[in-house]
Design brief:
144 residues, alpha+beta, six-stranded antiparallel sheet, 6 helices, globular
Length: 144
């Protein structure tokens, strides 16, 4: 954690420490869905993480992406962490990845998406601003 925190802006480090259990890198394998979590800093690119995740699968899968973010209160400066959830999904439905062309298309789509704008749409009110994306979650659904 400490080595990662050095890449995080100092004003967010306490939030990262408090919520590290959610933000930290992790993998959960389930019967139908695998979940991959990665912490994010300002320098990180999501496409590299997406490619890393898909490298674990030879068969077609469906994929969706969610993210956790930090919001700041405009008047008080208070910071809060919002966990990656179904409310912060990048895509309305999971997208099929069955070949390299589809994989590249989704990679490009993830990079093109304005994650901060998506987060702004799910914030509790306009008195809160999204400050930064803290982590990203990939949900991978296997075909049976």
């Amino acid at each position: 954690m400490e080595s990662f925190l050095s890449a995080v802006a100092s004003k967010y480090r306490e939030i990262y420490k408090t919520h590290w259990k959610t933000i930290q890198p992790s993998v959960k394998h389930g019967a139908l869905k695998d979940t991959y979590h990665f912490p994010m800093s300002d320098n990180d690119k999501t496409a590299g993480k997406f490619e890393q995740v898909l490298g674990n699968y030879e068969q077609p899968v469906k994929v969706n992406v969610a993210f956790g973010y930090i919001i700041g209160h405009k008047q008080t400066g208070e910071l809060k962490f919002y966990h990656p959830s179904n409310n912060t999904m990048v895509f309305d439905v999971a997208l099929v990845v069955s070949n390299n062309i589809e994989k590249k298309k989704i990679e490009n789509e993830i990079e093109r998406e304005d994650l901060l704008e998506i987060a702004n749409q799910s914030r509790p009110s306009t008195i809160w601003n999204v400050e930064t994306i803290a982590c990203i979650r990939f949900d991978i659904y296997r075909y049976l």
